[in-house]
Amino acid sequence: MTTIRTIPTPRKHGWSLTQFAIITLAAACVSAALFWVAGTEPTAAAPAPDVQTVPVQVTKPTLEDVPVYLDGIGTVQANFTVNITTRVDGELQSVLFKEGAPVKKGDLLAVIDPRPYQAASDQAAAKIKQDQADLANAQYLLSKDQKLAQQQITTQETVEQQQSQVASLVAQLAQDQAAKEAADVSLSYTEIMSPIDGRAGIRLIDAGNQVHTTDTTPIVTITQIQPITVVSTLREDDLGAVRDAMKSGPVEVAALSMDQSRSLATGVLSVINNVIDQNSGTVRIKSTFQNQDDALWPGQLVLLRVTQKTLHQAVTIPSSALQRGANGFFVYTIDAKGNATVCKVTVGPIENGRAVITNGLTGNEQVVTAGQYRLDAGTRVSVQPASPTATSGE
Which of 106, 135, 238, 315 is most deeply packed, by most CB within 10 A? Predict the structure, then answer.
């Protein structure tokens, strides 16, 4: 007999909707309880954010004596310029100077053929001797006639005629002596001497050429460059200040190269011209320099700097600290709390990277010299050491 066995089907396990809801509610309650417990405990304060600071470089104003300058373009001119020409006609026999070399007063520069003038001088000397002999004979005859007239051997008329002859010979002798002197002068002109201390230029006439007193081309030009002068111009508005400076004593001037990279020479202001150029509104001035090292050369353009006055114990700061706003110049200073403040200033002369402050600073402030472009009033700053390679401004 066949037996049929029934195998039971396995029961499936799963979460019912009710169970899931109960579990979810329980989890929510636990979370709420934990949050409440955590909320009742004290919490640590959050760290305050860092205050942003701007790095800057600062310096203190300095007190110093500051000279005030007036600048103008000047032209170097030789103190004396002499064109060496002949004063007698003849052949230029020799040229004895060296082109470009210094010469002294009295140095022999050139020689004109002296033979015709030597002959004229000798002839004049011979004529003087003849006159002296004729005069001596006439004086002897006069003395003889005077004795004979006392003895009434000759007439008074003869004596007077002889006196006239003596006077005529005396005049002739004087005339011939003058002619001799003129001949000697002409002879001396055959040796051309330097009339001044200076420097010879380029030779313009060579030896062997005929030269004449009417020639317009000189043999050479001598220029005196020790001392030397500079002629420049100043604005007419500065005339009063310069005149006041001259009343106080010698006014120092300096000649600079046109790029102002070096000082060439120092001297003194010697002349202010007596008229103002109405077209340009300037006045010409002349300054004198000893020029011992020949740093100045005739025709050279220089920047002439006149010392008008000196500001004593002036407040100065680096010019890189200056800022310009709608109301003029100002600088940033740092207060005791390390904040930037705006300080309006009045600026005087600016020279060699230093600016004179005539109003606005006392000399005790910390003035910002770098980093200003990120500043405003009240900005917190951090002072940084100055870099040796820092530029003069940002």
Answer: 315
At the top level of CATH, which class does the domain 88-112+190-217 belong to? mainly beta
The answer to whether the beta carbons of residues 197 and 52 sit under 8 Å apart is no
For residue 192, what are the β-bridge partners? 110
pLDDT tens digits for range 65-90: 988 888 899 999 999 999 999 999 99
Q: Which of the following CATH numbers is that of domain 114-189: 1.25.40, 1.10.287, 1.10.10, 3.40.50?
A: 1.10.287
Coil vs helix vs strand at 343: strand
CA angle, 191 then 194 then 195, to 5°: 115
| Residue type for position 241 | A
The string of pLDDT tens digits covering residues 107-134 is: 999 999 999 999 999 999 999 999 899 8
Phi–psi pair at 46, nearest 5 degrees: -70, 140
Tell me which CATH code domain 56-66+313-383 carries.
2.40.420.20
> Residue 167 is which amino acid?
A
- The helix (run of H) or strand (run of E) holding residue 316 is strand 301-318
Q: Write down the pTM of the prediction.
A: 0.66
Structure tokens at 38: 């955590």
pLDDT given at position 48: 46
Residues 6+ apart with CB under 8 A from 44: none
Nearest Cα to Cα of residue 304 among 278, 269, 351: 269
Task: Give, in order, the Cα–Cα distances in Å from 199 to each of 59, 82, 289, 328.
Answer: 52, 10, 16, 54
Question: How many Å apart are CA 339 and CA 358, to the nearest integer?
Answer: 24
Pick the CATH number of 68-78+224-311 from 2.40.30.170, 1.10.3720.10, 3.30.365.10, 2.60.120.650: 2.40.30.170
